[in-house]
Amino acid sequence: MADRQIVGPVSGTDVPRYSGPSTFARLPRVDQVETVDIAVIGAPFDTGVSYRPGARFGPTHIRQSSRLLRPYNPALDRAPFSVLQVADAGDMTINPFSIDAAVGEVQEQAASWTSRGTRLVTLGGDHTIALPLLRSVHAEHGPVAVLHFDAHLDTWDTYFGAPITHGTPFRRASEEGLLDREGSVHVGLRGSLYDKLDLADDARLGFQQLTSRQFAVERLDSMIDAMLVRLGDRPVYVSVDIDVLDPAHAPGTGTPEAGGLTSRELLELLRALDGRHVVGADVVEVAPAYDHAELTGVAASHVTYELLTVMAGTATDATHAGAPVSETPTDLS
Ligand code: MN
Ligand code: MN
To answer: Separation of 244 CA from ligand 1 center, angstroms?
Structure first.
């Protein structure tokens, strides 16, 4: 591992940032590297949405909006793409007509990486994909603390009889034993609910609730402390629904709710994870048809960059030296 050559992003001083193919942050594709510690992978799927569709175009939009990301992150004093090999694994191939088939396909394609020691940062796609992604993480790590940024609980039971939708992944994950019920937490909750019992039901499933209203009255550092205390020293899976941001910061999403976090708050919360063992992450619900001037795309790309920076701060699993790219398990976009 010490001798291998890490391939970084295409430099904006060699090729203008608006030129060339869109990979996340202009990183190499997986077929251009020998091993992969962290793969950024797209999951274009939005058949699980309950309101506005369009998140199937999220991965393409986030990549296009990530062209201005530069290699050094001053906030954490780290050049994440020099520490570990990060590469863009293209998009998963996902059935747009069957949620059950789609969930199986996401799980299988995610596991083809995670089973070989590569950590994934998955670009959605709607929030349905968090369930199969957590299954693949659980297979390697057992139950993990889920740090869930979202306006919504996503622990509802069924919609129109459907048990797996973008409003249910964390109920199903809790039922399946995928998450650590002592360490999981929602951050940024707000908006109307069906019933007061939704909150009690959610707590029973293993989540602490840190609401957007608390950010209005409490200092950010006390919110960060509360989040970190809840996570403890557990392995963490981070799931970011971009609608955790106020619609002013992220209009391009399917179920917007007024009164959300600012981009600045969200980025600080993510930076506070530095030193924690983040085993995987997703950034979901970016729907570019409702975006303006790449506001949502830029926010999502910067969120992804902070996640990658944090993840690069802890070594990949000791038993692996990054997964060898012996095959191409996904279509390369
Ligand atoms: Mn949401
Ligand atoms: Mn969600």
So the answer is: 7
If you measure from the C-alpha of residue 154 to the centroid of ligand 1, how many angstroms do you get, rounded to a whole number?
7
Residue 42: the pLDDT is 98
User: Which ligand sits nearest to residue 154's alpha carbon?
Assistant: 2
pLDDT of residue 333: 42
For tokens 């699993």, name the residue: 317
Closest CA to 69 of 23, 38, 31, 35: 23
Structural domains in the chain? 24-324 (3.40.800.10)
**Contact call for residues 79 and 311 (beta carbons, < 8 A):** no
CA of 149 to the centre of ligand 1 (A): 8
Taking only the tens place, the pLDDT of each residue in 301-327 is: 999 999 999 999 987 544 444 555 654
Task: Write the pLDDT tens digit of every residue in 253-298.
Answer: 999 999 999 999 999 999 999 999 999 999 999 999 999 999 999 9
Instruction: Quote the ligand 2 centre to 282 CA distance (angstroms).
Output: 11
Q: Which ligand is nearest to the CA of 256?
A: 1
Encoded tokens for 96 = 């747009």
Task: Give the Cα separation of 173 and 156 in Å (integer).
Answer: 12
Q: How far apart are the first and last CA of the chain?
A: 28
How many CB atoms within 10 Å of residue 57? 18
